[in-house]
Write a structure and sequence with these properties.
Number of helices: 11
Number of strands: 9
CATH topology: TIM Barrel
Distance between the termini: 22 Å
CATH class: Alpha Beta
Mean pLDDT: 92
Oligomer: single chain
Largest sheet: 6 strands, parallel
CATH architecture: Alpha-Beta Barrel
Low-confidence stretches: 253-262
CATH superfamily: Metal-dependent hydrolases
Length: about 260
Amino acid sequence: MIDLHCHVLAGIDDGPRDNEGSLALARAAAAAGIDTLVATPHVNWRYANDADTIARLVDELNARLAEHDVRVGVRAGAEVALTHAAEMDSGELARLTLGGGPWLLIEPPTTPIAIGLEGMVAGLQARGHSLVFAHPERCASFHRDPQLLASLVRAGALCSITAGSLVGHFGGQVRRFSEGLLREGLVHNVTSDAHDHVRRAPGIRAGLERAHVQGELADWLTVGVPAAILAGDEIPQRPAGAIAGARRRWLRRPRGLGQPTGG
């Protein structure tokens, strides 16, 4: 499997504090059946990471993994906050893409109301950037207006959800919304969004199993689509077959919506 969203680089954001933590996370990823990790440290107003630093740390980590015979390859990327990306230079953004391909992993705001979200997305796309939303199932604005997310997907964005959301790590509301996204065909990739090897460990299979996703669809979500994203190839067609469960109930706006956890 290819994990497109993982905080494996040490000391750069809220991922591992040191190199031992990075090694432990990578070992856990290998044990979970992941052979490629994309390092996606936060790039936002709090973590002012840049492409040069990320590339250097990825090279150092790959050398360390080879030295310790950890059979996982790490590619460079970033998780760029949408509000920050809208203000960044396009040249720097182009160097923060997933694996050097055309796709940016964008973190949408977690606030219940995100003023100007559609405009910021359209602005980035107009500048030539292809967008993958990181954990949209935890974006309260999409909970309030699921049709907004659907319209952004129709406009060319992809959705990457966290496996932990499917097993309830972020609460029942996020789990149900994630399942709804899967049923509606709005999920293109499932990742670990791992931050360490214990509390938020790398693992994808448990989430897929909890959501009854298997076979060709599971491979599409964890191999086919992420491989195409990294290579800059055309996104393969989604395999036929529905996810079990009632359709479109999730499209109703929930009452008393809280604020799903970001990260």
